[in-house]
Design goal:
It comes from Synchytrium endobioticum. The protein has eleven helices and six strands. The protein has about 300 residues and is of the alpha+beta class.
């Protein structure tokens, strides 16, 4: 469906295409035909593994319960299973990023697709697919003693959600994206160069990212400049005068300019500033963060990041 949408080039749909800071494919990235072939092999591999596991641990068909579980029981089990699967996949996924060997030989295969699309949702190394998807889905099913039909429903929902998370579109009428904050727009950021160490949660919820500080948007929000009280010190802007005696009284700074944050999270400002300090000597330095546009501060000296501004 998502492939058809992308080929039709419907303006109303393309408006919801998720922007990315990466090209669709780089020279070393796999072609679409390669992705389709390996995903097909992946499905065969996982189907055989799952069937073998089911045969080895499940009772014979004539001993299975003939009556399905009630819908309230099914819904409760599906909700618990989603939490269990998310927990398993978050920590396995994060481990594959933190462990260089696992990332190099296993998980990097999936990240060859810098701009995800639906066909590439399960484009993984076969061993990763077995550990992450087959085992990850089997664990909740076994722990909750799911009826085979409930297990089938759970696997189907998890697979559809995974494909949807890689579709490349943020569609307002998509039920998965409307119900879950962990959606295509959320997971797409994980495939960005700057987001690869964030948004590990998959496929349903993102509570682990929030709890563990790996939510991309929350992490970027912390790096944004904030308007709060800072402090002023005396001395010139030159490196030689870096150890000049600091101003110990109250100071006030008025500035006009545009705030930026570099890759290290250090704020800096392009613009002009006028500084008023009691007992200041030499040039001026401002300790604290600037807000975008106009800003001012009056406060005693406090320990905070120091940055330079033209005066």
């Amino acid at each position: 469906m998502f492939y058809i949408l992308s080929t039709l080039n419907i303006t109303r749909v393309e408006l919801h295409k998720i922007p990315t800071d990466q090209p669709m494919r780089r020279p070393k990235n796999p072609s679409a035909s390669t992705v389709l072939w390996k995903v097909f092999i992946q499905h065969i591999f996982q189907a055989v593994a799952a069937l073998s596991l089911a045969i080895s641990i499940r009772p014979p068909p004539d001993q299975l319960p003939k009556q399905m579980e009630s819908w309230p029981v099914i819904l409760i089990k599906l909700a618990i299973a989603a939490i269990l699967l998310d927990t398993y996949q978050y920590w396995m996924h994060r481990w594959m990023h933190l462990n260089r060997t696992l990332y190099k030989y296993l998980h990097s295969v999936h990240h060859q697709l810098t701009a995800p699309y639906a066909f590439g949702a399960l484009y993984n190394h076969p061993l990763e697919g077995l550990v992450m998807d087959t085992v990850g889905g089997a664990v909740p099913s076994l722990l909750l003693d799911m009826h085979p039909w409930t297990s089938t429903l759970f696997f189907t929902l998890a697979t559809l959600k995974t494909v949807d998370d890689h579709c490349g579109y943020s569609l307002p009428w998509d039920p998965f994206q409307a119900l879950f904050q962990n959606n295509a727009a959320y997971h797409d950021k994980h495939h960005w160069g700057k987001g690869i160490k964030y948004n590990f949660s998959q496929p349903f919820f993102h509570f682990w990212d929030i709890w563990m500080g790996t939510d991309f948007d929350m992490a970027m929000e912390k790096l944004k400049p904030k308007h709060y009280k800072g402090s002023v010190s005396s001395g010139s802007d030159s490196d030689e005068d870096e150890k000049d005696e600091r101003f110990t009284g109250n100071g006030h700074a008025n500035c006009n300019g545009t705030m930026h944050v570099n890759s290290n999270g250090t704020p800096y400002m392009n613009g002009n500033g006028t500084y008023y300090m009691n007992g200041s000597r030499g040039g001026s330095k401002f300790n604290g963060h600037f807000a975008n546009g106009n800003c001012g501060t009056t406060t005693p000296l406090r320990r905070s990041p120091r940055m330079h501004a033209s005066s």
